[in-house]
Amino acid sequence: MPELPEVAALVADLRPRLEGRAIVNAHLTAFSALKTFDPPLDAFRGLVVDGVDRHGKFLDIEAAGLHLVIHLSRAGWVRWKDAMPAKPPRPGGKGPLALRVVLDDDSGFDVTEAGTQKRLAVYAVRDPADVPGVARLGPDPLGPEFTREVFAQILRDAGRAQIKGVLRTQQTIAGIGNAYSDEILHVAKMSPFKPASAIEGDVVDELYAAIDSTLRDAMERSEGVAAAELKKEKKSAMRVHGRTGEACPVCGDTVAEVSFADSSLQYCPTCQTAGKKLADRRMSKLLK
C-alpha cells in the first residue's frame, strides 16, 4: 500500500508534469471507484491544473477550484504516460485500469488497481474536506502541528491500545500504514504490541524521533525516483517489513512475523521483544 513517503514522491513527480496543463478528458473505467457525483468528472474538462498535493495517503489534484482526490488503497497506483492512446478506454473493462486522465499535450496518467479486491477510491469535490477520509485525518507526522506534546497526548488518549495499531490509525496520525509502522517500531526497538499508555518519558522521545527519521529517510530515498520505480525502491529499503525469515540488518537475528486475517506484521525478536516470539494471531484463533 502506498503510504506517506510514496504519495509524497508521487506528488513531487506529478506536480511539474501537471501544473499549467489543461485536462482534456477524464475517462472512468471502474465505475465503483468513483465515490461522488457532484461535481461530475466531466466538470474537469478544459480546466487547467493549479496544484498537486497530498493529505495523508490521499493524492489531491486541484484544477480551477475543483479537486480530484485519489486514495490508492492497498493495490492502486498512478502510471504516467508521455503519449496516451488515441482510442478512449472501454468503460467497465476487466483490466486494472480505473481512471485515465488525458492532458492537452496528449500526455496523462492512468490510475490502476491490481488484484480482485477493488478498494481504490476517486472523489471529485470542491473542497478536500468534503472527502470523509480526509476530514477525519489526524495530524500529519511531518507537519508542524505534530509536536512531541501532541504525540504524547495521542499516546495517553489511546490507553491500552497496541502501539502498532495507534500508528496505523489514520484518524490518529495521517499517512503511516502497515509497512512504515513496522519500520518505525524497529528503529525505536519497541514491540508492536506495547500498550500506548505504557510509553512514557524518554521512550516517547525515542518513538517520536523514530517516526520523523524513518519517514524523512524514506522521502529522501524517493527523491527524484520516477513513479514507476517507487514501489521497487520502497521494498528494497525495508529493514523488517516484508522480510520474514531474513536477517535483521541491526543484530542478525531472524525477522519474525505475526499474521492476521488479511495482513501481517514483521519485527525483530532481539531488537524489539527481548528475544520473545510473539504469538501468531491467525494460528492462535485456530487452536482455540
Fold and architecture overview:
The chain has 288 residues and is α+β, with helices and mostly antiparallel strands. It folds into 2 domains: 4-135, N-terminal domain of MutM-like DNA repair proteins (Alpha-Beta Barrel); 148-287, Helicase, Ruva Protein, domain 3. Helix content is 30%, strand content 20%. It contains 9 helices and 10 strands. A 4-stranded antiparallel sheet has the order 1-6-7-5, with helices on one face. A 4-stranded antiparallel sheet has the order 2-3-4-8, covered by helices on one side. Strands 9-10 form a two-stranded antiparallel sheet. A hairpin with a 4-residue loop joins strand 6 and strand 7. Helix 1 packs parallel to helix 6 and helix 5 packs across helix 6 (202-222). The radius of gyration is 20 Å and the shape is elongated. The model is unreliable at 283-288 (pLDDT under 50). Pfam families: Fapy_DNA_glyco, H2TH, zf-FPG_IleRS. Residues 239-273 form the FPG-type domain. One of its GO terms (molecular function) is 8-oxo-7,8-dihydroguanine DNA N-glycosylase activity.
The total of helices stands at: 9
Oligomer: single chain
User: What spatial form do the alpha-carbon principal axes imply?
Assistant: elongated
What's the CATH class label of the largest domain? Mainly Alpha
How is the largest sheet built, in terms of strand order?
1-6-7-5
CATH architecture of the largest domain: Orthogonal Bundle
Count of discrete structural domains: 2
Major sheet: size, sense and barrel closure? Answer: 4 strands, antiparallel
What structural class do you assign from the helix and strand content?
alpha+beta
Assign a percent range to the helix content.
Answer: 25-40%
Termini separation: 31 Å
Low-confidence stretches: 283-288
Strand percentage lies at 15-25%
